[in-house]
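Summary of Year 1 activities. Much of the first year was spent building the evaluation harness for sequence design. The harness presents a backbone, in tokenized form, and records the residue chosen at every position. We chose the following record to illustrate the format because it has been used consistently in internal testing since the harness was completed.
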């Protein structure tokens, strides 16, 4: 099928290249000139495993191309996906300005029937909004659909190619059948719903996962006070198939470009409809408090943090991605700086120039080697569980730190081993 994707970020680019790999002819459009120029040369603007090879391969086979022209992106396409960003506004609402702009561009460029399929995470009613915007620009026939995306950064290509379910919200048989054809190669349940329900499924899923994380973090906080071990508690809980073992890792809380904004957006959707989603308020509060708790643990080891040198390993919101949007590590560094601490930071993949421009840190030195980052520091903070941290040389860490202090926000080291090696080691719920 001839398809196009509006927005070539983590979701749009992965969607585009995976559909091209499945034999479709795909055009990816973005408003970001630098991104599109890089992509035309097969260079990926962010880190995502497997993506670069797949893009290069499909450029070579002429199944995927990139453009800055919305007209070219829309011309002769049967399906047009919207995968633009939907960041949160200050009040927690989803900012739909990119969606509106994309819908307007599509409406202006449409010449014949197409389905406009929304993959961005959007509040209930956005399908209807997109339809109305397009209708103002284009008087011909078209359909709207909602097809939320569940891929995870760090394993996005695998997740897209191996979905556990595909959700399709439509209100016409024609669009339902066309989307069914597009997803024909996938062997998983397809859940067909109305558009509003599909939009809600995405928010409900993310909010539930965030709730699971905040729940286990609350259990961790009780474990710390009663002498239980949250890792063992979570393992035993997870063996119960009603609970499941995923998203039960205690730590400094969830982050990233989805959970924080989607939880707050769902809370706002409920409020707009005169309902207080009490549980989600608590989920957010617990998540924020986990960051504070890590700083308190650091104070427990070092006392007053003024002028203390702190090494932070991990800046991305989780391993295997360079994405730092709403990363717990960034919040923690800001809290350390507020208390007068000075930070050495290391991450294997993040764009530190951009991080500095966006956050205007006052004291952070970004290091290009994880061990160099430890020099002259009184404590090591584990903020992201990259494999290279899990496999770090503990003797070297001990020799390089001024004092053998580690505060582990991701529970990556073995308690007994750390004690035996003489570390002052604090983790979460153990
Ligand atoms: N990142 C994830 O893991 C993930 C997973 C599932 C769903 N989502 C949802 O998918 C959507 C996209 O997320 P993302 O992480 O890919 O965002 P992103 O910021 O990585 O990419 C969005 C892209 O859209 C482009 N864009 C903005 N306005 C545009 C316009 N008018 N026309 C064309 N392009 C435009 C931007 O330049 C950017 O390249 C969001 O709603 C997000 O919540 C994200």
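For this record, the design step produced the sequence shown next.
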């Amino acid at each position: 099928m001839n398809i196009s994707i509006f927005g070539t970020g983590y979701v749009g680019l992965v969607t585009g290249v995976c559909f091209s790999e499945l034999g479709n002819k795909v055009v990816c459009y973005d408003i970001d000139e630098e991104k599109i120029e890089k992509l035309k040369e097969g260079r990926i603007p962010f880190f995502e495993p497997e993506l670069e090879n797949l893009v290069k391969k499909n450029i070579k086979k002429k199944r995927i191309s990139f453009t800055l022209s919305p007209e070219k992106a829309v011309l002769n396409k049967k399906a047009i996906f919207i995968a633009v960003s939907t960041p949160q506004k200050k009040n927690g609402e989803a900012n739909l300005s990119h969606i509106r702009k994309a819908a307007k561009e599509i409406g202006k460029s449409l010449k014949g029937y197409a389905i406009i399929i929304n993959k961005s995470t959007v509040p209930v009613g956005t399908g209807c909004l997109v339809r109305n915007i397009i209708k103002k620009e284009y008087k011909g026939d078209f359909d709207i659909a909602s097809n939320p995306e569940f891929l995870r950064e760090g394993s996005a290509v695998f997740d897209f190619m191996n979905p556990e379910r595909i959700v399709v919200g439509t209100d016409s048989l024609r669009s339902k059948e066309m989307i069914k054809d597009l997803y024909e190669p996938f062997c998983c349940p397809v859940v067909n719903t109305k558009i509003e329900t599909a939009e809600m499924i995405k928010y409900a899923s993310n909010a539930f996962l965030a709730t699971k994380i905040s729940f286990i973090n609350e259990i961790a906080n009780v474990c710390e006070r009663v002498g239980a071990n949250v890792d063992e508690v979570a393992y035993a809980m997870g063996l119960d198939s009603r609970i499941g073992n995923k998203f039960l890792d205690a730590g400094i809380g969830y982050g990233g470009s989805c959970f924080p904004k989607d939880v707050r957006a769902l809370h706002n959707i409920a409020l707009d409809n005169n309902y207080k989603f009490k549980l989600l308020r608590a989920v957010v509060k617990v998540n924020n408090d986990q960051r504070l708790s890590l700083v308190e643990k650091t104070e427990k080891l070092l006392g007053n943090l003024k002028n203390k040198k702190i090494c932070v390993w991990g800046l991305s919101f989780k391993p295997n991605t360079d994405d730092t949007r709403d990363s717990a590590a960034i919040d923690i560094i800001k809290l350390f700086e507020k208390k007068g601490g000075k930070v050495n930071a290391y991450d294997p993949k993040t764009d530190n120039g951009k991080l500095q421009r966006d956050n205007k840190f006052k004291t952070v030195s970004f290091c290009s080697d994880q061990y160099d980052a430890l020099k002259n520091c009184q404590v090591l903070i584990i903020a992201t569980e990259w494999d290279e941290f899990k496999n770090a040389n503990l003797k070297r860490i001990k020799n390089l730190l001024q004092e053998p202090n580690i505060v582990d926000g991701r529970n990556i080291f073995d308690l007994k081993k750390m004690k035996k090696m003489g570390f002052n080691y604090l983790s979460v719920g153990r």
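The chain has a mean pLDDT of 97. Quantitative recovery figures across the full test set are reported in Table 2.
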